[in-house]
Amino acid sequence: MQGTVTCGSWIRGPENLNLVVLGKSLKKRDSASPSVLEIFSFDPQTASLSNSPQVTYVFEETEGEPVTIAVHPSGDDFVCSTSKGGCKLLELSGQETKLKLLAKELPPLHDAGPQNCMAFSVDGSKFATGGVDGRLRILEWPSLRIILDEAKAHNSVRDMDFSLDSEFLASTSTDGSARIWKAEDGSAVATLTRNSDEKIELCRFSKDGMKPFLFCAVQKGDKAVTSVYDISTWKKIGYKRLLRKPAAIMSISLDGKYLALGSKDGDVCVAEVKTMEVSHLSRRLHLGTCIASLEFCPSQRVVLTTSSEWGAVVTKLNVPADWKEWQIYLVLVGLFLASAIAFYIFFQNSDSFWKFPHASDRPRGPKFEILDPQYSEDAFGPLDM
After folding, report:
1. 3-state class percentages of the chain: helix first, strand second, coil last, to nearest 5
2. What's the whole-number mean pLDDT along residues 353-374?
């Protein structure tokens, strides 16, 4: 793949046909070439991307390089922030082999400047951006009505994430602080507490539908930990050492079962949320290079990572396989058949009250003669008691 990969993300397609969008800088030492967005198809059998892009969008030279990408949950469109211009909306249409990209302007973000992070809410009704300049915006989607435009939300926005119910937005700053916002009206809810030697750098809400938590990558002196906050009180309830080195990027799977961390020197670890134990570790995946993008595939236990040195890498996780829907139905049918067979065997070998013998097998009882009509019921007369 030619060019330097600057960012990347999955695009959820119909029937688990997922795509990958990559932002690339094609600049050379002696000449300035325009940057591009390329969309690749994904083969789940080989866990690899197609050799050539299905569709390419070329930026104007005045727009600079793509910085970060946020894909709408529907997979129909995505937003790309550039280093010199603002944010651009790209609509995706057509079949997998005949894809088309249509670029549109986003008036509220036309000259917003480069954004460090962007995110859509889980239900797709909100869109948030965090600028290098510290400006935080929350917009209603797709109307683009401005819900929040906080110019000094942070020194510089580092990371952000929406909660599963799309009620809250968490944002972190390059100075180590973290704030919670109400997504509906943009009001500030809380500032996460931290010790003087702690810097909250990254954040992700739990997505498994159980008791909701907020996971934060925290640099605690010379130790890197993952802290857990209860979102009912916004108090820290514990921490765990997972990656054991400074984290550059954080991600959580769509079903909320796994949490991933990417390091500043190219390592990736994946932990099971239920146990908070590391389930997969890829050392030197992007050897010596900071991981810029880290995202779970929407339908496979696969992660996409990008870096400026090694480009895009697709990694299949060494985690227990998930139960497929047809496997669950097969088990249920098997249990039903086993129960039916067991009942039949029990019925055949039991003296059931309802197990009547056939007429030919019934024992013959005593024969009773029909009384002569002249005899009455008291034919024997009164008994002498």
Report:
1. 10, 45, 50
2. 51
**pLDDT tens-digit profile of 137-170?**
999 999 999 999 999 999 999 999 999 999 999 9
pTM of the model: 0.83
DSSP assigned state of 299: S
Q: What is the token pair recorded at 270?
A: 């994946």
Q: How many CB atoms lie within 10 A of CB 93?
A: 12
184 is written with which tokens?
């509906």
Q: Is 21 left (phi over 0), alpha (psi -120 to 50) or beta?
A: beta
| C-alpha span between 216 and 275 (Å, rounded) | 16
With CA atoms as reference, report the closest residue to 302 among 321, 286, 283.
Answer: 321
Domain 4-152+227-324, what architecture?
7 Propeller (2.130)
pLDDT > 70? residue 372? no
Please state, in angstroms and rounded to a whole number, the distance separating the CA atoms of residues 329 and 122. Answer: 29
190-201 per-residue burial string, b: 16 or more CB within 10 A, e: under 16: bebebeeebbbb
Phi and psi at residue 185, to the nearest 5°: -125, 0
Domain range list for the chain: 4-152+227-324
For the chain, the residue count is 385
Burial class (CB in 10 A: 0-12, 13-18, 19+), 97: exposed
Please give the C-alpha separations between residue 158 and each of 39, 101, 111, in angstroms, as whole numbers.
Answer: 26, 29, 20
Whole-angstrom CA distances from 322 to 134, 255, 281, 301, 337 are 40, 11, 19, 9, 24
Q: How far apart are the first and last CA of the chain?
A: 116
CB of 19 closer than 8 Å to CB of 50 = no
pLDDT of residue 357: 54
Alpha carbon distance 39, 357 (integer Å)? 74
Instruction: Give the span between the Cα atoms of 143 and 36, in whole angstroms.
Output: 27
3-state secondary structure of 23: strand
